[in-house]
Structures are given as structure tokens and as C-alpha cells.
Amino acid sequence: MEPTIVCPSCSASPMERFCGQCGERRVSQHDLSIRHYAREFLEIFTHLNSRILRATWELVRHPRGLSEYHFMGRRVRYVTPLRLFVVLSVVYFLSSTIYPNPAFTTPLSIQLHGNNYYAGFAANQVAQALQHKGWDYATLERSYDEKTTILSKTLLFALIPVFALIFQLLLFRKRRFFSEHVVVATHFWSFALLLIGIFIPLLLALLAVVGPRLGVPGSILTADAIPTLVLQGSFASYLFMMLRRVYGVSYWYGGLVAAAIAWSFFFVVWLYRFLLFVVTLRLL
């Protein structure tokens, strides 16, 4: 006679394959085998990968698709907005190690010398830090760059509520919940990371190969104007289609809001850089 099995979670007895009280699954010898763990890992990995790839493709193919599907309740085929953002942020930071991109991992040299907004404030704060710690500039710069690279991966999330607030202010007549704006902002930033981390480096690599053959001057190929125009044009187009479908705005208002947000995109990035600068310097 088999001994009575007691549920390890709620102590209900007897326990069959699944507990009738809490639903806990009964552990068998097979569950402890290497084959079981290998199969479980493979199922999770392939299932998650397919959902990520499907969501990424939908993000590029249909600007309004993922947000619209999320609000409709069609979620099982795609990863959640936040998980997609996390995955694409990892892709972005991996890409930045191959194609250095200071957009979100801004080193101290750019904070001081490539800054048209708070350069005086930054220089003053750095001077105070040098005096307070008794370091030379090289030591401070090395420590700052190491710390800011780590912090940027966390503070990147701060950009989502900023854009959600922008959507709420510009689309307040639509009377949508702030959480809905957060979903749209998360999908927009996921697209932005994909564009900045993958498409722009590929475009620049292509221009570096094709440009000289076409007689394009090197000064033009290395100028920031090309990626800036591509980014702002892409953001404006993407946002226009997203706003039209998700919020149902008119053509003229959708175009106005999309153009305004695309134009202000780099100002928001500099706001993020300012926050990153202040936090990094305080944590040294």
C-alpha cells in the first residue's frame, strides 16, 4: 500500500498528481533528472525567444501594433512591454561595446566638453569633487566613466515615465489612464533603442563603405547631422502612425504632436544625461 502523500505547500491530504486544495504539482523522480531540467530549459528558452522575436518584428512592422494588442488583451503571443524594453536595452548596451555610442552612456569628457546646456554647472561640480576627494582629473574621470556605465543601465528606465507624462499632457482629452501612456512610451522607447543600437550603426557602417566610392567627403560621413536627421525622421513617422491608431487623433494633431516629440527627443536625452551626471557624481 502506497503511503499517503501530503501536499508540501498546504498540507492537504491525500495528494494526487496535483493538489486539490492549492494546485501544487506532485514531484516525481523524473522531475529530478537532468533530462527533465534540460528539456524545461529548452522549452523556456525557445518559447521566450519566439515571443521576443515576434514582439520585436511587430514593433518594427506595425508602430501601433503592440500597444494596441496589449490594450485589446492579445498578450500571449508577445512578451510584456517592460520585458521587451529590458531585452532591447541589453541589445543596445551590447551594441555600444562594438559601436561606441554615448547617447545613454555619456562619459565625463562629453559631459564637460560636448555639452551645450549645463557645461558651466558640470565643470563647477567636477572641480568641487576633485577638491573634496583630493583626486587628480584622470582618476576622477576613470572612476566616473566606470560608475556612469553601470548607472546608465538603471536610469534608462526613467525615460519611460517622462514620455508617458508627455503623452498624458498632449493627449489629455483622450482621458486615458497613465498606465496606458506608460505602455505606449515603453514600446516607443523599445523602438528607439532598436533604432539607435542596431539600425543607426548599420547605416553608418554602410555609409563608411559606400560613401568614399561615391565621392562623399569624410566630414559629411562623420557628421552627427545624418544620424540625427534619420532618428528624428524615423521617430516622427513612427509616432504619427502610433498616435493615429492607438489614440485615434486627427491627421493634423497627430502630425503636430509627432513632430514636436521627435524634435524634442534630444532635449529629453540631455535631461537624462543631466540626471545621470548628478547621480554618478554623488555616488563616487
Give a short summary of the structure:
The chain has 11 helices and no strands. The chain has 284 residues and is an all-alpha fold.
Helix content: over 70%
Uncertain runs: none
Q: Assign the structural class, choosing from mainly alpha, mainly beta, alpha/beta, alpha+beta, or little secondary structure.
A: mainly alpha
Q: Based on CA inertia axes, which overall geometry fits?
A: globular
How many beta-strand segments? 0
Mean pLDDT: 80
How many DSSP helices? Answer: 11
What's the alpha carbon Rg, rounded to whole Å?
25 Å
Distance between the termini: 67 Å
Largest sheet: none
**How many domain regions?**
1
Give, in order, the helices and strands.
Answer: HHHHHHHHHHH
Query: How large is the share of residues in beta strands?
Result: under 5%
Keyword list:
mainly alpha
Topology:
Elements: H1 34-61, H2 65-72, H3 81-98, H4 108-113, H5 119-133, H6 137-155, H7 159-170, H8 178-213, H9 218-221, H10 225-247, H11 251-282
Helix pairs in contact: 2-8, 3-8, 6-11, 7-8, 7-11, 8-10, 10-11
Descriptive notes:
- Helix content is 71%, strand content 0%.
- The protein is mainly alpha-helical.
- The chain has one domain.
- The longest helix has 36 residues, at 178-213.
- The radius of gyration is 25 Å and the shape is globular.
- The model has no long low-confidence stretch (mean pLDDT 80).
